[in-house]
């Protein structure tokens, strides 16, 4: 085994813990840029009629009043973010009574596979007190996201699939939550 390969393998095992917390306004621009980059890299903005959504993803400040903006940092650098809707309101797309919703989750393309997305989803789950389930929508082309959600216990709900605009087909995933006494 070469010295370079040994060093690379050693570094891969040195994964630092990702810090996850509420984003502060000074981080909104970075979060929006990363989420839009992640959607572009994953092919989620390729469908006709979906290009406008990049601007929506970048505009974190507009959704911060109606939802929780959660950020993931590695060594103080923003590496991902998510919009979390703990209970209805204008930022909920598909959440029904008793459901929290995960929206606009993105991880910097060069940080994917390093636990950032997992940390963000787990934080949303931890913040879901009082909800009976968490739901989210994801595009059919987001195969990496599908694997993440399924690994964390989310299951597809085919009856709730939908299309916000023609050509953008969204799958629904849901995670049933146990009541606090069962945890």
From TrEMBL:
TM region(s), chain numbering: none
Protein's UniProt keywords contain Ribosomal protein: no
InterPro entries reported for this sequence: Acyl_CoA_acyltransferase, Bact_Acetyltransf, GNAT_dom
Keyword Acyltransferase: yes
Keywords for this protein: Acyltransferase, Transferase
Gene3D superfamilies with a match to the protein in the record: 3.40.630.30
Segments forming domain N-acetyltransferase: 18-182
Pfam families, alphabetized: Acetyltransf_1
UniProt-recorded name of the protein: Ribosomal protein S18 acetylase RimI-like enzyme
Upper classification of the organism: Bacteria, Bacillati, Actinomycetota, Actinomycetes, Micrococcales
């Amino acid at each position: 085994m070469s010295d370079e390969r040994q060093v690379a393998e050693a570094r891969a095992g040195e994964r630092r813990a990702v810090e996850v917390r509420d984003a502060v306004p000074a981080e909104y621009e970075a979060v929006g840029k990363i989420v839009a980059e992640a959607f572009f890299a994953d092919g989620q903005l390729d469908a006709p009629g979906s290009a406008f959504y990049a601007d929506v993803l970048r505009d974190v400040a507009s959704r911060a009043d109606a939802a929780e903006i959660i950020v993931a940092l590695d060594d103080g650098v923003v590496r991902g973010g998510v919009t979390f809707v703990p209970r209805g309101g204008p930022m909920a797309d598909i959440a029904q009574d008793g459901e929290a919703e995960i929206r606009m989750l993105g991880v910097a393309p060069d940080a994917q596979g390093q636990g950032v997305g997992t940390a963000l989803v787990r934080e949303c789950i931890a913040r879901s007190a009082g909800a009976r389930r968490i739901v989210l929508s994801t595009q059919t082309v987001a195969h990496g996201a599908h694997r993440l959600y399924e690994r964390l216990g989310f299951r597809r709900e085919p009856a709730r699939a939908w299309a916000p605009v023609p050509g953008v087909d969204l799958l629904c995933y849901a995670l049933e939550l146990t009541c606090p006494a069962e945890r």
